[in-house]
Amino acid sequence: MHISRAITAAAAALSSGVLVPLYINPIGGPDCSGWAPLLDSIKAHPDVPFWAIINPDSGPGAHNSQPGAEYQQCIPVLRASNVVVLGYVATWEGDADKQAGVGQDIDTYAGWGAAYRPDGVFFDQVSGQSGQLTTYRSFVLHARPLFNGGNGFITLNPGTAPQDTAYYGIADLILSAENFFDKFKTSDLSLGSSTPASKQAVVLTDGPSSPPTSLISQLISTDHIKALYVTTDSQTNGANPYDDLPTDLEQFIAAVENAQ
Fold it and tell me: Residue 134 contacts by C-beta under 8 Å, 6 or more apart in sequence?
């Protein structure tokens, strides 16, 4: 019986891990130097699950295109038994005029060569509103069969708790808090039977220079959320907070592992 690679990764790992917005060019060469710190940490922590979001060009690039040579080379290096690779797709809050483009981005990723095709999709700019639930269900139904042997991993990013808890029923993971580190409170999360912690992720920017162990303990050990990422990179003044890896990446991942 065939068991999909992403399911095997989740089954073999600790229950909580790291969701990485890897919006960084890997840079070709023998060590894929743009991703090297993350690649080293993945190898050093084989029991920690990672969900790595690749984003070559605010999505996959032109419709029906293949990725650049550096992605073709480095995605297979990124792959490991504890890693799920996700392709970034913007959804524009469910804007009807943009829906065809969402489908094209999904199909473009699905058309990549098998060695570097993602295991699923990270849908960004998700509405989370009841009125757009049908739209997002259609995106998920389109995407899931095209990846990972027909069982693609689906993440939705409303950036806050979705208004309609039915979103939890259509996704494998929901980014329910994306914020500045100093503006986030654990009470911002809605945790319950219809909003399970096991389907929630938190991503925080402008973080401290060393891992926030108290917060990690609360979210991982006590609340049991599925994935966490705190980066020292900044979004102040409109900067891109995901164009570099955290300066304390290895220590942060070790702290997530030690909290379990």
Answer: none
213-241 exposure pattern, b = at least 16 Cβ within 10 A, e = fewer: eebbeebbeebebbbbbbbbbbeeeeeeb
CA trace torsion 127, 129, 131, 133 (10° rounding) = 70
Q: What is the C-alpha separation between 119 and 153, in angstroms, rounded?
A: 6
Q: Could you report the per-residue pLDDT of 132-186, keeping only the tens digit for each?
A: 999 999 999 999 999 999 999 999 999 999 999 999 999 999 999 999 999 999 9
DSSP secondary structure letter of residue 31: T
Is the separation of the CB atoms in 188 and 215 below 8 Å?
Answer: no
Degrees (nearest 5) of the Cα angle 81, 225, 45? Answer: 30
Please give the model's pTM, rounded to 2 decimal places: 0.95
Which residues, at least 6 apart from 182, have a Cβ–Cβ distance to it below 8 Å?
A: 206
Largest interatomic CA distance in the chain: 51
Looking at the chain, list the stretches that DSSP marks H as alpha helix, in order from N- to C-terminal side: 5-12, 36-44, 69-78, 99-110, 133-143, 213-216, 249-258
d(CA 13, CA 3): 15
- The H or E element containing residue 87 is strand 83-90
Q: Annotate 172-223 with DSSP letters as a single string.
A: SEEEEEEEEGGG--GGGS--BTTB-GGGEEEEEES--SS--HHHHIIIIIIS
| Cα dihedral sign, 127-128-133-139 | positive
Distance CA 125, CA 90 (A): 6
